[in-house]
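User: For a benchmark we're assembling, each entry needs the component sequences followed by a predicted structure for the full assembly. Here are entry 17's components. Please fill in the structure.
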Amino acid sequence: MKNNIRVERAIKNITQADLAEQVGVSRQTINTIESNKYVPSTVLALKIARVFSKPLEEVFMLEDGD
Amino acid sequence: MKSRYLFPYWCRFLGYALILAHVPVVVFKQSLGFDLNHGPVNNDLLNSHHVFFMTTTLLMAIGLFIVAFSKEKIEDEQISQLRSDSLQWAIYVNYVLLIISLVFTNDTEHILFLNLMVPLAFFIIRFRWVIFRLNSSLSREG
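Assistant: Structure for entry 17:
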């Protein structure tokens, strides 16, 4: 699964730490999600999409092979 | 996902304190050589050797237990995933060691001791190691 959290963060101009605080996880978790090392739960993905006020599919997308 | 049934964060330090407290007691006992004079074989549960063994082992086991199952500062879903991964590894390692030692020795007292220590100790080491790696990847990327 890919995501463009990094891009969305840049648009909204917030840091990893800000995003982490808003969705209630650690900065490490946001960092590993951004670098595609960790796949978040549906609840966390929905929370992240809500922070950016975008539908889930615009933040997270499936890759070939998923 | 909420992790339930975990001790509060500060319990980790209590656990380390218990483990550390147990080390000098055992070293002191070994260096004085109390182990050598058991006296007549005594099956009474209250003989000094058994009571000492029980208290030090309990001290260490409870310490390990508390360290292993206390919350992280920020307890999120990734941490719970790492925790269950590490737990799975610990059980694998424990059973491999258990089977090897059952086949190649008949020293059941030490097998029991091994079985008491290995899962928790391996779990703690593996869990702390992945968290350390997580943090160091964070500081590399800034």
